[in-house]
Amino acid sequence: MHFPMPVATLSAFVVAVAVILVAGALCVLYGIFVERHWFRARRYRIPVLDPGADSPLTVLHLSDLHMVERDDAKVRFLASLPVPDVAVVTGDFLGDPRAVERVVEVLRPLRGRLASYFVLGSNDLYAPKPLNYAHYFVRSRRKRTSVRGRDADLRQGLLDDGWTDLDNRRTELPVDGTRLEVMGMHDPHIQLADLRLAPRRDPGAVGLAVVHSPDPAPELAAFGWDLILTGHTHGGQVRMPFVGALVTNSHIPTRLCRGLSLVPPSVMHVSPGMGTSKYAPFRFLCRPEATLLELLPRQSGTPAAAEHRGSVSA
C-alpha cells in the first residue's frame, strides 16, 4: 500500500535540496573568482646543509604557473616576491602557448643570485585542451592526442635569461664551502624521465633533485637525495574538510601531495602550484602558493630528515 509523503516532510526535503544546490554553487563561484587568485607565500626552514655551512641558503620554489597572456593578479604577486639565492621552477610554466614571452619576462626578476634551475612539464610541451574531469579519477590506457606547444621557444627564452635546464641533466653548485649536487628529470607523468640519472655521484655533497611530478620520489630517496623539489599535483586543487585532496593526478598518496613530507632519508617539497588549467579554473581549500625554503646547517652527524620534525615554520 502506498502512503503519500506528508506535505511538511516534502517541503523540508525540497528546502534541504535547495540549500545544498545553493551552497554548492557558492563554493564553485568562490573557487573560480576568489581562491584561485588568492596567492600566498609560505616559508619553511629545513636543516639540510652541511654542519659547517657559513649561512642559510634561500630557495624560491615555484611550480605549475599555467601562465596565460592576461594573468595580471599572478604577475603582481610574483613581482612582490624577494629575490632568492636559488630559484627553482618545477614545470608547467604555460597555460597557453601564446604566453611564452610573458612568463619569461615575469620570471626574469626572480632569478636566483647564485643559480636558477628549471624543468618542463607536459603543459609546456603540449597545448592544453578540454577534458572530462572524470579522467582524474579513472586511469585510462587510451592515448590522448595533443597538439605540440612552444616548448623550444620557452626553453630558449629561459636559457637566454641565464636559467639552467635540468631536464634529464645534472650540475653542481658550490656555496660557502658546501657542495650541492643538483639533478633534474624531465616529466615522469608523460614517461620522459631518465631514471638512469637517479644514482648519486657525489654522496659527500648535499643532493638536490628537481622533477616535475613526484612519482619518482621513492627511487630518488632510495639513492639518497637530501631534498626533492617537485610539483604537478596542484596540491589536489580541490580539497575537502577532514578528507584532504580528492585526487593527485600521480601515484603518490593524497596526504603527500602538497607541502613538506619525509620520504626517508629525504625531505620532499611538493608545491601546490600557482595556477590551474584554463579548462579547470577552480581551486577549493587549496590556495595557489609560492614557497621560500630556507636551507639551514644540520647538526653534526644528523641526517636532514631526522631534524625535519619541529624545524619547519610556515
Rg? 21 Å
The number of distinct structural domains comes to 1
Name the CATH class.
Answer: Alpha Beta
Mean pLDDT: 88
Cα end-to-end separation:
63 Å
* SSE order, one letter for each helix or strand: HEEHEHEHHEEEEHEEEEEEH
Task: Tell the overall outline.
Answer: globular
List key phrases describing it:
single chain; 314 residues; alpha/beta; Purple Acid Phosphatase, chain A, domain 2; six-stranded mixed β-sheet; disordered C terminus
List the helices and strands and how they pair.
Layout: H1 7-33, E1 40-49, E2 57-62, H2 72-79, E3 86-90, H3 100-107, E4 115-119, H4 122-125, H5 151-160, E5 164-165, E6 169-175, E7 178-185, E8 206-211, H6 217-222, E9 227-230, E10 239-240, E11 244-245, E12 259-263, E13 266-270, E14 289-297, H7 304-308
Describe what you observe in this structure.
The protein is of the alpha/beta class. The chain has one domain (34-308): Purple Acid Phosphatase, chain A, domain 2 (4-Layer Sandwich), CATH 3.60.21.10. The chain contains seven helices and 14 strands. A six-stranded mixed sheet has the order 1-14-2-3-4-5.
Quick structural summary:
The protein has 314 residues and is α/β, with parallel strands linked by helices. The chain contains seven helices and 14 strands.
